[in-house]
Structure formats: C-alpha cells, structure tokens
Amino acid sequence: MQVKRSRERIIVDIPIVVTTVLDSLEGTIVDLSEGGAQIVGCSLPARSQCQIDLDGYTVFGTVQWSEEDRMGIRFPYLLSDGPLYERLKMARGPRHAPPPARPRPQMAAPVMGGFGRRMV
C-alpha cells in the first residue's frame, strides 16, 4: 500500500549523528522533506524522541517506524532554515526554485477631470 505524502521526498546522502538521552549513533539521511527523513545505518524504537545533529545545528524528531538498519523520523516543525534545509534546497535543484518575480504592470497616468473629479 502506497501512502500519499503531503511533502515530496528528495533523495540525498547526508551523514548525520542521531542523539537520544542515552546514546549517539551515526547514520545517513537517504531521503528528506520538510516534514521528515529516512535514516539508514542506525535505528531506534518507534516513538523514540531524538535529535539529528548536522554542522552544529539540531533538528528534533520522533521515530515513526523502525527496521533493523533504518528508520523514519518525523519533525515536529517543518524545516525552514539551517544546514539540513539548505541541503534539501540544493538537492531539489532549479526545478523547484520559485519562479522569478514578474515586473508589476505600470498604471496608466490618472485622467484629470473625469467622473467623480472636480475640475478646476
């Protein structure tokens, strides 16, 4: 059964450290979105609270599912800044970049003495 996701997952290869109250584990994020990540190379029990550390920046998460050597993490808040978000933007590339701003249309010069105007 395929689950419809609200955010597009992007394939990445980002080495990280997963930290819990009792342990620190090395792993690699293999797919990422603003709402979560799949990590291979380590696992924690489902519903565990953890943090993902990258370049001195921490993202908190909850393990949603876990297998022997991989797990899915959900972030409580959508990624919007920091090195993990920057890696996500770079991995998406130009096809997901916002379109360039279009110039605003120029307003025509006001007509003096038209409807609702007092003529001097």
Automatic annotation (TrEMBL):
Superkingdom assignment: Bacteria
Residues covered by the PilZ domain: 4-76
InterPro entries in UniProt: PilZ_domain
Protein name in the entry: PilZ domain-containing protein
Provenance organism: Sphingobium olei
